[in-house]
# Entry
Amino acid sequence: MPAAKEIGVERDRCRTGIEGLDNLLNGGVPRGNTVLVTGSVGTGKTSLSVEFLIHGARAGENSLYISVTESSEKLLANLIHYDFFESRLLKEGRLIFIDLPLIYERLGLDKHEFDMQDTDILTKVIVDLVREMKTKRLVIDSVTSVCYRLKTQENIRQFILDLGTALSGLGCTTLLVSEISPGSDRYSLFGVEEAIADGILVMANLERRGDLLRTLQVVKMRGTTHSRAKYVLDLTPVGVLLVPLLKGGSVATG
# Structure
């Protein structure tokens, strides 16, 4: 296990750049952690993850987004409307988008089910990309789509464990986007991802007086104390904003 994760050692923080979230985590995500960003459709998982990368790129950290389902071209078209996005980050190579299906095709992994050997190959390719690009922030969106091909809990467990260990050793902080159904009683589709991840951010929709609010809650984060309170999350042109959700479902103001 990397020395940085030893008990009693103060962990360097990877500031997300989302002020409210960094405050919840007492300065940010402990660097090298693998964090599950989980929730149902429309809860803001991709928006939060991409903003995490952009803030890192603006701070001089190489940031990589691996898209499993949605094309990078479509994602970038949506990004230009946000004030915090800067196209120069793409030109400078600080912010890179890669479509995983293209990697599957080049590796001959364009099949519906992976065996353990295929899983090892995929892990190595991702780790090699991070190493070669000197990536410090990585998002895989979504890890659920990758797990569909891994099929067995054993393969899923090995993939996330091996990937997380290798990336942590490279000093890379990773967000794994996880898709779950509304009202699910667990934080990942297969029930394996949540046990292995260093952290869990749960994003959900909450109905209140006819409105549908997005919420965020830090359920787990190894390496730091953190608040477990539920916050209302708002997606604005300037980025993600978090406001405390008070008891009774009201939202703090002022």
About this structure: The first strand starts at residue 13 and ends at 14. The radius of gyration is 18 Å. Confidence is low (pLDDT under 50) at residues 1-7.
